[in-house]
Amino acid sequence: MLLVLTLFFLGVILWAFRPGSRPMHDDASQIPFRNEQPAGRDRDDRPDRDSNPRTDNPKGHENV
User: Fold this and answer.
1) What is the C-alpha to C-alpha distance for residues 57 and 64, in angstroms, rounded to an integer?
2) What is the pTM of this model?
3) Percent of the residues in the chain that have a pLDDT greater than 90, as a whole number
């Protein structure tokens, strides 16, 4: 069983570092950043969250 698991481990390592897999890994590494705002937009462009506070919530938290 130890030999089977060792061969499986080496197979996974070789598969991950095979030639031609770099574009797939680069694409996967950018997934968390796909829905972000463009870099040129400032935070000041967004509407102010406190411009219309809710009167029914004393702490100012939004109701979710």
Assistant:
1) 12
2) 0.43
3) 52
